[in-house]
Amino acid sequence: MISIKGLSKVFKTKHQEVKAVDDVSINIDKGEIFGVIGYSGAGKSTFIRLINRLEEPTNGDVTINQTNITSLNIGKLRKERQKIGMIFQHFNLLWSRTVFENIAFPLEIAGVSKSERKEKVSELIELVGLKGRENSYPSQLSGGQKQRVGIARALANDPDVLLCDEATSALDPETTDDILDLLVSINKKLNLTIIMITHEMHVIQKICHRVAVMDQGKVVEQGDVLDVFVKPQSKTAKRFVQQLSPLEHNQEGLHRFVTNDSNSEVVKLHFIGNDAKRALISDVLRKYVVDINILQGSISPTQEGAYGTLYVEISGDQKVITETINYIQSSGVEVEVIQDVD
Amino acid sequence: MLTDLFPNVQMDEMWTATYETLYMTIISVIGTLILGILLGLLLFLTEKGNLWQNKLLNGVTATVVNVFRAIPFIILILLLFPFTDFLMGTIRGPKAALPALIIGAAPFYARLVEIAFKEVDKGVIEAAKSMGAKTRTIIFKVLLPESMPALISGITVTAIALISYTAMAGVIGAGGLGDLAYLKGFQRRDIDVVVACTIFIVVIVFIFQFIGDFLSKTLDKR
Questions:
Q1: Which of A100, B11, B72, B213 could join A134 via S-S bond, C-beta 3.0 to 4.6 A?
Q2: Which tens digit of pLDDT belongs to each residue from B118-170?
Q3: What CA–CA distance (Å, rounded) separates B53 from B46?
Q4: How far A94 CA sits from the closest chain B CA (Å)?
Q5: What residues of A are in contact with residue B221 (Cβ under 8 Å)?
Q6: For chain B, which domains are there?
Q7: Regarding the domain delimited by A254-340, which CATH topology (the fold level of the hierarchy) does it fall under?
Q8: In whole angstroms, what is the distance from residue A223 CA to residue B89 CA?
Q9: Comparing C-alpha atoms, which of A287, A333, A339 is closest to residue A313?
Q10: DSSP H or E segment with residue B94
């Protein structure tokens, strides 16, 4: 549905050229929530502005629903932008307008009649849960409510795509969750494609189906959220995954909990999707004569199912340990041997 | 009591002069508002990174504004005599003061307008662009309403400057309270007329300040 090919943006200053976005190619399906994560300065904010040409691309193409955005003249681009909603980190509402008038603004731009505007705005206010606040001014609203107005405003012209530029970065954790829930429900209800820029990994974990990791203007890794979480390839992706559950990836602390039994192995188990729901440990203990000492573990839900990791120390007869590991592997759970204590 | 304090003040003269001062002020405020906002818009929009980015046009506008702001008002009136004569058909009376008043105040107000527009959140302009707004829509539905309190406090300051300009214009025959204070008060050594004119002008200034503050406050929903 959205195809981005070889997209680049070079900023020229007097003394140097900065490649803010460097040859980015991404395909996004209809109804997908696609996340783009990167540290500040990675070029993700510039990237999202290239999609609706708030920044003009230096090179490359953006195609949305067979329309090549990059080749449109300014008049047609304006028309097309009405079908690309955008929400912002700092909400960017007009303080001089009430909630109702803010949401009506894009409809005024699109030339919708007054009575239709009224009807549409009421619908949107209901959708984002702001009933009763129609006549408030933005200054009278909390951050979460302001972003709800932003979302309603972005949805006013029934867009095909919603661009979210750090939409939750200015909100507290609880409000962030509320806004993310709202975005997921809108995504499901309207089958709306969402592109989400963020530097917070839990945002990706909570709502995205696929993710691209950006570093220095380049996409260093992209794929299903679950894959990137379980097996991050790039250094940047690894750091982001680690940031989410720092304990899980800190293997140094494990040594202290390992017994000095000569016949033991420390393994890391990856549970993906439905595997996370199984009672694997009791299953194993019923079948094999081994002792299992649980060192640490965690489980995280994502849009595509949960994934979990568990560090255990298996001790017993060397042969039985090998059989046990083979059994666990054959049941679909991935096993990584961390350390031979021998 | 009042006639003891102000023996030489004739109220019908005072009211006529007040009317003339108000006439000059109100018409020139309206003219300044229009010309100043146009110039301010041009200054703002042609700036680097803005909608009509244009170095040459910005430079020319800025120079014109700076030059007219640099000319002392009393000299500007003299310089504009031929222009005023051509435009208004006379160089005497309140009407004749209008071109100089507007041309003197508009560049000053234009700078205040430019500052007011610069204070408008860039993100809001970006949001309007992302919705597909035309430049005209951005000017009328974003820039002007979002900077309204600053535009109003700016015109209040300018209006008060204009009131003192009208008094200066009065001295060279424009009429109004300045004229009255100079001709009937100063030249005839009737100091009570000067004092009365001063009181009237101060009251007019206070009224303008009050209206401006009230409007600016009421419109500010931040």
A1: A100
A2: 999 999 999 999 999 999 999 999 999 999 999 999 999 999 999 999 998 88
A3: 4
A4: 7
A5: 95-96, 137-139
A6: 14-219 (1.10.3720.10)
A7: Alpha-Beta Plaits (3.30.70)
A8: 78
A9: A339
A10: helix B94-118
- Please state the ipTM of this predicted complex: 0.86
Tell me which fold the domain A2-244 belongs to: Rossmann fold (3.40.50)
Which of B130, B147, B151 should we substitute to test contact with A (largest number of A Cβ atoms within 10 Å)? Answer: B130
How far is residue A266's CA from residue A342's CA, in Å, rounded to a whole number? Answer: 11
Query: Which of B123, B134, B148 is opposite residue A92, by nearest beta carbon?
Result: B123
Summarize pLDDT for A220-254 with one digit per residue, the tens.
Answer: 999 998 888 888 889 999 888 877 765 555 666 66
Given an 8 Å threshold on Cβ–Cβ distance, is A108 in contact with B132?
A: no
